[in-house]
Amino acid sequence: MVMRVQRVEGEYRVVLTPEAMEALKLKEGAAVRVLPVDEPEQSRYVGVEEGMKAYFETEPFHRNSYRELAK
After folding, report:
1. Which residues contact 13 (CB under 8 A, 6 or more apart)?
2. Which residues are registered as beta bridge partners of 11?
């Protein structure tokens, strides 16, 4: 899946197709974190909601580890 960055009214935007939204399990208004990658042909998009869900699923098992990392 390849998307292009477009300039709209002085801002840069990536327009996602309905298929991309479904594949990435995103909903309108979802927060998305964009991370740099080492190779230009790679990309990784993770919905913030998915990351928080993973955190809350693992938090009871790793509570002390997360507390230490937060220090």
Report:
1. 5, 6, 7
2. 8
Q: How far apart are CA 59 and CA 3, in angstroms?
A: 34
- Closest to 29 measured CA to CA, from 49, 5, 56: 49
pLDDT at 69 over 80: yes
Which residues 6+ apart lie within 8 Å of 2 measured at CB? none
**pLDDT tens-place string over residues 10-22:** 999 888 888 888 8
pLDDT score, position 11: 92
Spell out the domain ranges in the chain. Answer: 5-70
